[in-house]
Design a protein that fits this description.
five-stranded parallel beta sheet, alpha/beta, single chain, Sulfate adenylyltransferase, 2 domains, Rossmann fold
Length: 381
């Protein structure tokens, strides 16, 4: 049996025929791509037990206690921030259509609360900083202090090139069950596969005794300079096709969400999302979901441990490097090591150069460089 969804049952909020009857007459609100991505995850149950964007009571409970008002663990606010002019058109109890910039309706929102909140206070409590050098804070502060709350119903997902890799929690649970898996390790990433990632993935399989691993890169918008989704997925697909992973023990699927750079809060959130996908374990690296020097290196472990059993077990890894004397990958304990960095991968490939095979496999580099030479972009601009 797979681990049960967070909160006990998987939320499913996709529009039926009754929802679509008068949809063209509903008032519309154009919202950013990231919030439309959240709507999709509400609809598919990835954010179970959440059913929509949080009201004030809920997100204050999350900020203060790392729990929903019901007592269920939840660490990250999921909010719909809107322009002050927009809220003048709506009232509590309204059903509105949420659209993309081209006016395509993707979701419905049943408004349960309209409120304002001090952004400086929200940034400090959510991100632990008010510095505009933090990308999450910068995005928050560029917008107004107005928010809408309410249940979301998914009408149609957004069209994206790599959608064939996307798997809903219902689909992952079906796949894992058909494979005979009950214990599954999840791996979250926003970079192509390098040797450090390969090592901790295989070690996590061994340490947990799990049936398989679900490699689940994030493919939503990221900050400039980060890898685009296609090269990330291509790197893993290449390794799978050339037999670098144990046969029958790896599933590759993407996660249509975005990096919030919220440190430990986001680390737990990403684990809970994988729990909803059917994963029993979740790999947590040294600086998982962090950015710059905003979060302490032990912050993720401390938050997980303070929360107790959340139904998905973290598998912690410290920094891993390559020991050129022994020819092995080792945990950093002060010995001379060559460190593996996603930033260095980005900078080197952007320059059209090669890294050593111990850093990232030659095969992966050749595939990615060939993509770049053919004119396909590798990086967010």
């Amino acid at each position: 049996m797979l681990v049960e969804p967070h909160g006990g049952s998987l939320v499913h909020r996709e529009a039926g025929s009754a929802d679509l009857e008068d949809i063209e007459y509903l008032p519309q609100l154009n919202i950013p791509e990231r919030e439309l991505m959240d709507c999709e995850q509400f609809g598919y149950g990835t954010y179970s037990p959440l059913t929509g964007f949080m009201n004030r009571e809920t997100f204050e409970s999350v900020l203060d206690t790392y729990r929903l008002p019901s007592g269920v663990v939840w660490t990250l606010p999921i909010l719909l921030q809107v322009n002050s002019e927009d809220i003048k058109s709506f009232a509590i109890g309204n059903r509105i259509a949420l659209t993309d910039e081209e006016g395509v309706v993707h979701s419905l929102l049943d408004i349960s609360e309209i409120y304002r909140y001090d952004l400086e206070s929200l940034a400090a409590r959510m991100y632990g900083t008010t510095s505009r050098n933090h990308p999450g804070v910068a995005r928050l502060m560029r917008r107004s202090n107005c928010f809408l709350a309410g249940d979301v119903t998914l009408v149609q997902p957004m069209a994206i090139p790599s959608r064939h890799y996307l798997l809903t929690p219902t689909q992952t649970r079906f796949i894992f069950t058909r494979l005979g898996w009950s214990q599954v390790v999840a791996f979250h990433s926003r970079n192509p596969a390098h040797r450090g990632h390969e090592l901790i993935q295989l070690q996590a399989l061994e340490r947990t005794g799990a049936d398989g691993i679900y490699i689940n890169p994030v493919i939503g918008p990221k900050k400039p300079g980060d890898f685009l989704p296609e090269p990330i997925l291509l790197s893993y697909q290449t390794l799978l096709e050339f037999g670098y992973y144990p046969k029958g023990r790896v599933v590759l699927g993407s996660f249509f969400t975005y990096s919030r750079y919220a440190g430990p809060r986001e680390a737990v959130f990403t684990a809970l999302c994988r729990k909803n996908m059917g994963c029993s374990h979740f790999i947590v690296g040294r600086d998982h979901t962090g950015v710059g020097n905003f979060y302490p290196s032990n912050g993720n472990r401390e938050l997980f441990e303070s929360l107790g059993d959340i139904g998905v077990e973290p598998v912690f890894f410290d920094t891993v490097g390559y020991n050129s004397k022994t020819g092995k990958y080792e945990v950093d304990q002060g010995q001379p090591l060559e460190m593996i960095s996603g930033t260095e991968v980005r900078e080197t490939l952007r320059a059209g150069k090669h890294l050593p095979n111990w850093f990232i496999r030659d095969l992966v580099q050749e595939v990615l460089l060939a993509e770049m030479k053919s004119g396909k972009p590798l990086f967010c601009e």
